[in-house]
Amino acid sequence: MSTAESPVEHEDRWVLNLRGMTVTKIGVDFRLLLVLDSDWEVALEAPVGLSLGTVHANPSALLRPESQDVAAALALVGASVLSAVAFKSGTLRLVFDTGHHLTCLSDPAFEAWQVTCPAGWRFVSLPGGDLAVWSDAVGQVSDVQTTSFVETGHHLPAMPLLLLLDLDNTLVDRDAAFRHAGADFLAEHGLPASDLTWLMASDAGGYAPRHELAAALTDRYGGLVPATAVRALLDTGAADRIVLAHSARQALGKAQTDGWTCVIVTNGRTVQQEAKIRNTGLDQLVHGWVVSEAVGHKKPEPEIFQAAAAVVGVPLPGTWVIGDSPHADIAGAHALGLRSVWVTDGRPWTQGSYEPTHTAHDVASAIDHVIGTRRR
Questions:
Q1: Which residue from 94, 163, 291, 374 could staple onto 102, CB 3.0 to 4.6 Å apart?
Q2: Which long-range contacts (C-beta less than 8 Å, at least 24 apart) are formed by 247-253?
Q3: Reading across the β-sheet that carries 358-360, which strands appear in turn?
């Protein structure tokens, strides 16, 4: 490989010379292997985000090489690479002429991915978020670690700023919307207005499984309410009435202006949650989102937070999590060693084994606190 054709190093990344190369073969074992012409290979072991278009327009699917759940990657066969970037934070990002964007983050415990070529270049995402680069011609070219920057007097590359935000009762007042929908439902079918207290308790802030709440409504009202009305209440009742507060809209705008990448992380059903995101205009205010049904994991499981980071290609270290649920949001952040803000809505903290980094009355105050930490 000539010098002109070699990968090019920049302060925070390497631009790989893969442009115009085609994916000729895909292999799967414990890795997802992309074989390109000219005998370059991309081996991916960590979860991989794959989107069609930018993640802002179309949040990515999460491929899991360790479980061979990578069927969506078949769309890349025959695709040509438009750009390939290996970030020194350990993230790999490939863009293809089909419109697909592939992102693989570093992993704290193992080598998440590597790129090799027959001319002797090798790029490896090291455990914990470093990038190692080798060339047969000169040996180890680069091994980027925090200490090396400090010791040599170089400036550290700016760390990506990732903010993960809960949706229901954090960014939007889901309970108020469901209460409104429930009151309309009772009035429309001539049912006692006092039943709204029972309905809200049975809904449990949206945490009651949909089939259980549907069964409870059917048992209570029998033939008084058609099944289609029950489905409409549970499927679209809250989503159609959700409102994004002006203060939350302003805070998100400030976060983006300040350089934060904002991703919604929400439990629930994909159709319903995405309807809320689009109905409120949140799809224009965040960089992406993940819904538990779509990724097969729900908060507080670490995989859903990892999927959110993969959607935008930003590593989790340094991330803040904002949410109203002690169990789903704050415990999830605590387990991953992430900082968090609990949106209290006037409630006291009662957990003893973990606690949030900060508390705030509402989401706008929470976002303002996170923005402020960058300047301290």
A1: 94
A2: 247/362, 247/364, 248/171, 248/172, 248/362, 248/363, 248/364, 248/367, 249/281, 249/285, 250/364, 251/363, 251/364, 251/367, 251/368, 252/282, 252/285, 252/286, 252/367, 253/285
A3: 288-291, 260-266, 161-165, 320-323, 339-343, 358-360
Helix (H, G, I), strand (E, B) or coil at 126: strand
- Eight-class DSSP state of 302: H
Give the 3-state secondary structure of residue 282: helix
From the list 322, 304, 309, 306, the residue with the least C-alpha distance to 359 is: 322
Segment 94-130, tens digit of pLDDT? 989 888 889 898 888 889 999 998 777 899 999 888 8
- Using the 8-state DSSP alphabet, how is residue 222 labeled? G
Residue with tokens 């011609």: 137
Query: Please, are residues 310 and 107 in contact by the beta-carbon 8 Å criterion?
Result: no
Q: Are 331 and 300 in contact (CB under 8 A)?
A: yes
What letter does residue 230 receive in the DSSP assignment? Answer: H
Residues 275-324 have pLDDT tens digits of: 999 999 998 889 889 999 989 999 999 999 999 988 887 888 889 999 99
